[in-house]
Amino acid sequence: MGVAIPNASTMNWFQFRGITNELDSNLASTDYRQFTVSKNGEFNFKIADINTNIKIVDQNNKVVAEAKAKNEAAETSAKLGPGTYTAVISQAVRGVNEREYTLDITERQNIMMVSSGAQMKGIARAVVGNDSGVQKHTLTVAQGGEFVGNMSLPYTRWALMSKEGKVVASGDTMDPTKSGEDMLKKPSFKIDPGQYELVIVPPKNVVGEIPYQLNFIQKVAKAPESTEERPFDKIMREREARLKQWAAEDANKASTTSKTTPYKMSLLA
Questions:
Q1: Quick check: 84 and 59 in contact, CB under 8 A?
Q2: Which distant-in-sequence residues (6+ apart) come within 8 Å of 195 by Cβ?
Q3: Among residues 91, 23, 86, 83, which one has the least CA distance to residue 56?
Q4: Compositionally biased, Polar residues: which spans (predicted)?
Q5: Which one of 134, 160, 215, 241 is most buried, counting C-beta atoms within 10 A?
């Protein structure tokens, strides 16, 4: 019974583990693994073994993605259409044969942010070999604004990077005591329309698979109390002040009259 070819479009993540036990035309120790794509999508390819190269080749033998791991894990991403693809894993050092490798293939999510915010759902897994565990996705901001980021997974860092590599927003959950912190008290970030790379670094000591969410929520500013007096209020205030002034003046006149011109009774003869 043959080995089933995985469909990358139906899984958030899958992994190829094997041994480079064939020689290619350049005499590099190589292995070949196939997978299919049933609908348009973007995918990350991460090799966790140093001195190992990967190429993703389509059915026309065209290289659509490539990465070289030298002293640390390496990754690349590609937008793929429906079809069958081959992952070519080869050793960078000639003469190194029968070497184990681990290749992770994950969906690269394309999250859309509107004025109310956005939500990203992911899965944290234990890292293997020299893999850093970093996850990367695409965030497209259709409507910008001021947003607060809320990560559900403890001991996790995240950052939003512009195309120029500038960090426009970031956060972490390294302090569990702040997990229930009021959203309005968290730092907010002004994010303009455009396309960004969302980088997530989950903890390395994950057991099994742990789902998580990263929510971007629009920050609703509390309207400050207006100190400007309305015209109607000004009229009423001035009217009340005049009434009090007139009442005080009338009371003062009555008091003065009673003291200077006392009332005299006359008797008629």
A1: yes
A2: 138, 139, 140, 141, 163
A3: 86
A4: 253-263
A5: 160
User: Cα dist. 235→12, 47, 195, 227, 231 in Å?
Assistant: 67, 75, 53, 16, 6
Measure the CA–CA gap between 200 and 166, rounded to whole angstroms.
Answer: 15
Contact (Cβ atoms closer than 8 angstroms) between residue 160 and residue 167: yes
Amino acid letter, 258:
S
Domains identified in the chain and CATH numbers: 8-107 (2.60.120.380), 110-218 (2.60.120.380)
Strands 135-141 and 110-113: parallel
Give the full edge-to-edge strand order of the sheet including 41-47: 13-20, 99-107, 41-47, 74-80
The C-alpha atoms of residue 78 and residue 46 are separated, in whole angstroms, by 12
d(CA 126, CA 120): 20
Burial 175-214 (b: 16+ CB within 10 A, else e): eeeeeeeeeeeeebbebeeeebbbbbbbbeebeeebebeb
pLDDT at 267: 46
Rounded to an integer, what distance in angstroms lies between the CA atom of residue 263 and that of residue 250? Answer: 19
The predicted pLDDT at position 246 comes to 74
Per this entry, what is the length of the chain? 269
Asked if the model's pLDDT at residue 252 lies above 80, the reply is no
Rounded-to-integer distance, Cα 23 and Cα 40, Å: 32
Mean pLDDT within 2-21: 87
- Give the separation between CA 78 and CA 65, rounded to whole angstroms: 6
Give dist(CA 177, CA 253) in Å, integer: 70
